[in-house]
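Input chain follows. Return structure tokens only.
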Amino acid sequence: MREIKFRGKSKFKDVWHYGSLINNAFFLRSDDSAIPYILDTDDIDYDNFVDIAEQLDDFEVIPESVGQSPSLKDKNRKVIYENDIADFGDVQGVIKKGAWYWFVEIIGYDEIIHFDDIADENDMTIEGEVIGNTIDNPELLEVYE
């Protein structure tokens, strides 16, 4: 079975959580949106749902930081996630997930590259190198003229 992985930056600490996305259906923000959590199985000690509920607040993440992995790696074998910024040599772009496909939104251009054009499905890699992400490295989104 294919593993679907997510990541999100902690709302309370300067750390990233990797694991399963939980949009809490019982507690909502004041605007009625769900509160996202990333259940980081490497950083939680539980053996039942009560234990998870007691520790859940430790795994609340910034909503804008939540990103899914397309189950591919960059050319250095680093797992890539939605909203990563990748360098392709002559251009840089942000990894995005559309309704039906993954693509790279090229920074500074109104252009996208579909993963079909840059991914090696046999090796499960893309041609580019992850150099940051939109949350920790917003300066990489700036276009210099």
